[in-house]
Design brief:
Helix content: 40-55%
Strand content: 5-15%
Number of helices: 28
Structural class: alpha+beta
Number of strands: 17
Distance between the termini: 28 Å
Strand order of the largest sheet: 2-3-1-9-8-10
Largest sheet: 6 strands, antiparallel
Amino acid sequence: MCGIAGVFGFQEKLSCDRSTLQNMIDMLNHRGPDGQGLYLDEKVALAHARLSIIDIEGGSQPIHNENKTVWTVFNGEIFNYIELRKDLIARGHHFYTHTDSEVIVHLYEEYGEDFVARLNGQFAIAIWDIACEKFILLRDRVGILPLFYTSRHGQLLFASEVKALLVALPDTPALNPAALEQLMTFWAAVSPATMFKDIFELSPGHMLVAHRGSISSYRYWDWCFPLPNEYRRGSESQLRDELLDLLIDATKIRLRADVPVGAYLSGGLDSSTLVSLIHHFSDAPLRTFSLAFASKSFDEREHQQQMIEKINADNSHLLCRDQDIAEHFEDSIWHSESPILRTAPVPMKLLSNLVRAKGYKVVLTGEGADEVLGGYDIFKESKLRQFWAKQPASVARPTLLKRLYPYLDVSPGRAQRYLQNFFGVSLEQPDTAFFSHLPRWSTTAKCKNFFSGPFKEQLQGNAEKVLAEHLSANLKSWHHFNRAQYVEVKTLMAGYLLCSQGDRMLMANSVEGRFPFLDHRVIEFANQLDPNIKMKVLNEKYLLKQAVKDYVPKSIIQRHKQPYRAPDIDAFFSGNTPDFVHEMLSKERLDRYGYFDSKKVALLLAKIKAGHAIGFKDNMAFIGMLSTQVWHSKIYRELFRQFLEII
């Protein structure tokens, strides 16, 4: 992966000079430290920071077609570029490189805007069609690669990260209050909104077209599910074999590179499946990287070791301590460009640093398997809540939920009341689009209790309504399990897991992540399945387990799913609390920034210091407030200080 940036004069003559373009791409040097390329004409300025992975010698960008009428800068990988290249040569196109980037300009020549349907990859692409005076931005189907844009005075500015836009703008953009409210509910702002007013992300599966003085965008791909009587037919063994074949091919084409490729190994089913497929179905040397924690409640080394021994992997592991999270927290927020509600991204940044230190630029990860194939506890939870909703007065039915979370410390006397209060949210409306996620959102939204009075006055309190406006019109016609999957991928996965915890923590150390489970062919196959074969009763990812049972140890297939987590409050208070925590959560700093009520924050800090802060609510509130304060400080103060020094 790389970094791209640029400006298009869609209404006026280009006002971006070479110096401004250089400043923009310099902000993305961590995404592409292997070289830079610029292109400017009267209408467009394109810049590229390169992480060289394919055609190392000849793949520099910007890339053009034969007569230089179509130009592109591109961040990502086109995994089926070899097959596309052969077809395009047969159709008369001439290539001057061996990179996957050049496929884009020729494919666009051949098929116009419909070319994207032929891409299998992860990408953020800018195309300048000189002959038609058309400028195009597009982003991959599920949102693996980021792409941001804004318009000012007839100029369209775009970049892989917001910080590259900020150095080209004449003034500091204001905070988008609605985005922070949404983040404190869904863990991320509702796409296309960002934390910055009037700066937008191009939503996953969307294409933006600037042509003849106007800008428009449309969705070219989306997650789609059949009606309940239209699921894909076939025996369990047939569907199992088809899934396995798709995963094998999705993995093999993601090993294409002119540099060594590694893989993350967590010890769970998804990463174990991935490394097993590499081991059994490719000739690639198996180099794996694992994350370990000093705290046993987060550590998975026992399960990682089972896979390492089974496939004889060459593994490196990183031991993450509480103080490591605290030490690297601020820098992680700088790279994420967004507040976060858990510290989980920080260890992922440390792990990508290990990958790079060992000489690797590319890793495959198991991200996406839970969303695509039905693996999360929230899907089990939704099933049980649907069952409970049929008899809301039942005493026995809600107790089934305790089986999902046996570690919950709830006394028998309080259990019924707790389960009713937490999981009984909107139990009387099980057919609502967001039924599956309301308990989680209700808990997360308690972070908003810490907002200051003046900040609350800026909010409209319609986060769920805004989200609904950006989802498929067919959502309510799908099975409740599929509705839960769709809401999950449109909120937590796209907005947080693939961004704050994924791309940003990888590219902070110039490492590219690849995601076989998010191959669109795998997604489209899985979406057609009956939900009962994805999760059989409460056995998550049932079909995946059947598909890989000959390749993954039985103990890993049968183990209770352990979500990836990292220490939150404990990371900052188990030893010496870092100075920046005291500074950012001081009354002076809280009142100056204005987001949070300093008195309420002081009460939470007192609770933490007394050792009484427990549970998700306190952890999310603390990390959410600390990260918001750091975000404001890093983006508004440090970034513009750096920029002023540049100019």
